[in-house]
């Protein structure tokens, strides 16, 4: 009982730390008890202990009770690392064979699920220092690397390398760094807009094509004028020769 109490106290301290790191809206340590993430992760840890012992009904009972109270459904079979935090949390779903590393941040509406067709390992593996923004879906058995950002509303269906940013439906890599991203600077807003980038690229290509056409038109005008000048000079020469021939100067 004493060990369980100490573990709970450690959990509370850890959650206060991680909540203050990710949510500037918290004003006192007591507020951590009001966060759905605090209770969802706490009950997940308890349910996971029962799951590992083979007490599957008890594990699911605890997880489903927590889901009704918090709006966050974490299967007790999932594996979750340290400093895990869910901001707001409503609608978050984490499947049975999901594996989550350390320092991972999820926002509301995130689904870490399967495709419904796979057996065995059917949910994603999430690396360390990963941020998954509001409403994003990661579906299938593949790996999301370390230091990855997934933009709001994205649907990720395949593996993502380390140090990448992924946005869109389906999700695609639009930015990649060759360095680690500290967890304290992970946010939802510093993400590229691939649609805007594509539009800007099209504008640049169109501008370049227009300038090329203008240069070609200028060259054609120069060639046309040059040919006209040569034709005029030839006509004058022919007239002069004809005139000279008529006057007998050419005989």
Task: Write structural notes for this entry.
- The relative contact order is 0.07.
- The chain is rod-shaped.
- The N terminus is likely disordered.
- With 251 residues, it is an alpha/beta fold.
- It has two domains: 191 residues, 3 Solenoid (UDP N-Acetylglucosamine Acyltransferase, domain 1); 59 residues.
- The longest helix is centred in the last third of the chain and has 53 residues.
How would you summarize what this structure contains?
It is built from four helices and 15 strands. With 251 residues, the protein is of the alpha/beta class.
List keywords for this structure.
alpha/beta; UDP N-Acetylglucosamine Acyltransferase, domain 1; 2 domains; six-stranded mixed sheet; disordered N terminus
The CATH superfamily of the largest domain is known as Hexapeptide repeat proteins
**Beta fraction of the residues?**
15-25%
- At the first level of CATH, what is the class of the largest domain? Mainly Beta
> In CATH terms, what is the architecture of the largest domain?
3 Solenoid
Summing up helix and strand content along with how strands pair, one would put the structural category as alpha/beta
CATH topology of the largest domain: UDP N-Acetylglucosamine Acyltransferase, domain 1
Low-pLDDT ranges: 1-6, 180-186
Estimate the helix proportion, in percent: 40-55%
Count of individual domains: 2
């Amino acid at each position: 009982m004493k060990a369980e109490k100490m573990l709970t106290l450690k959990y509370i301290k850890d959650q206060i730390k991680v909540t203050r790191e990710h949510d500037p809206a918290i004003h006192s340590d007591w507020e951590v008890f009001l966060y759905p993430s605090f209770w969802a992760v706490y009950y997940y840890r308890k349910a996971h202990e029962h799951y590992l012992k083979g007490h599957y009904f008890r594990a699911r009972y605890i997880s489903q009770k927590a889901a009704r109270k918090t709006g966050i459904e974490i299967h007790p079979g999932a594996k979750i690392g340290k400093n895990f935090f869910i901001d707001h949390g409503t609608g978050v779903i984490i499947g049975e064979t999901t594996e989550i590393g350390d320092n991972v941040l999820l926002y509301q509406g995130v689904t870490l699920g399967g495709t419904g067709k796979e057996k065995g390992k059917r949910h994603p593996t999430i690396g360390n220092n990963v941020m998954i923004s509001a409403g994003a879906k990661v579906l299938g058995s593949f790996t999301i690397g370390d230091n990855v950002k997934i933009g709001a509303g994205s649907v990720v269906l395949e593996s993502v390398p380390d140090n990448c940013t992924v946005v869109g439906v389906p999700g695609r890599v639009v930015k990649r760094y060759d360095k680690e991203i500290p967890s304290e600077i992970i946010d939802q807003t510093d993400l590229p807009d691939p649609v805007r980038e594509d539009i800007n690229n099209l504008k640049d290509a169109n501008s370049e094509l227009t300038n090329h056409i203008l240069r070609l038109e200028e060259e054609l005008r120069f060639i046309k004028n040059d040919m006209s000048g040569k034709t005029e000079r030839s006509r004058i020469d022919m007239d002069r020769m004809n005139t000279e021939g008529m006057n007998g100067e050419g005989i």
